[in-house]
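Summary for the steering committee. The consortium agreed at its last meeting that each partner would contribute one worked example illustrating the joint modelling workflow. Our contribution is presented below. We chose a case with several input lines so that the handling of multiple components could be demonstrated. No manual editing was applied between input and output; the record is shown as generated.
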Amino acid sequence: MKSVAFIGLGNMGSPMVLNLLETGHQVTVFDVNEAAYAPLTDAGAKTAGSALEAARDVDAVITMLPNDKIVGELYLGENGLLAQLRSKPLLIDCSTVSAEIVRRIYAAALEGGIAFMDAPVSGGVMGARAGTLSFMVGGDKSAVDDASPMLYSMGSRIFHAGPSGAGQTAKMCNNMLAAILMAGTAEALALGSRNGLDANALTEIINHSTGRNFMTEKWNPWPGVLPDVPSSHGYQGGFQVALMCKDLGLAICNAQLHGSSVPLGSLVRSLLLLFQGQSAEVAKLDLSSIQRFYAPWMEEVR
Ligand code: NAD
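What follows is the complete predicted structure of the assembly.
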């Protein structure tokens, strides 16, 4: 059993905390949004008044935050963990951010004799709830070994991708591909629907043909095809359009920095930005809501 500070209790962080508690860890939580606390304190979590307070005297700190700016400030800021912590907990960042920011944090942590690893996840909200996330880890092997029991409380696979930043690089590649698959799936289902095909029937055919993919099988964007996915619940929960725009932005920046070309990733980001421009609510909808952009005529099951 370990004592853990968990910072960032959103769609992903909250179910991850519940799984840590379920497997016997002591968890102190912090989020700028206090509304996130209730289900976690009911399950046995303690709360803290700040990230720093949560992180004092624990074995490990896990962060699950939106972007580079917030993660950078939390670890590297004047009042951040590395400047202020007197203890040396194992630091694990599970957020999806750039390889560059996690390498900066790793270097600063190393100077202070603290182990830091990037451990972004795949599996989405459903994987976070089920405790079946995959962790893509960058950092020193000894830190990965120390973190493994905690990570296995929240996930079922740990991939040590390489040194600091390697986890984020793997995650960036995976998410760019996921975004392309989602846009392609929505495009195909819209085309079929325009031609009078039923989305359920078309999905069934694709799932037995060469177009089968994770989106047609497990994260279908057409409402009512699968019962327990965001498309069948008004595109609520899941993985926000805004977060995928951020992830594709990371891929595009990285490609520029290292001389790669990501034409499909760039195109899908442009599609998502156009879609986001339609209304303020779109940014918070699940990625699969891109189906609305392709097929505004569809009838939604809510
Ligand atoms: P979210 O927006 O639901 O949650 C983020 C949480 O961080 C919010 O509760 C917010 O209040 C909190 N927060 C923001 N700034 C903070 C600060 N300074 N201190 C403490 N708390 C702060 O996002 P999410 O879907 O849980 O995603 C979190 C991270 O996980 C992102 O980097 C995302 O890209 C990644 N991710 C998400 C999914 C998914 O399916 N949702 C899947 C894999 C990875």
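The chain is about 50% helix and 15% strand. The chain has two domains: 3-163, 169-294.
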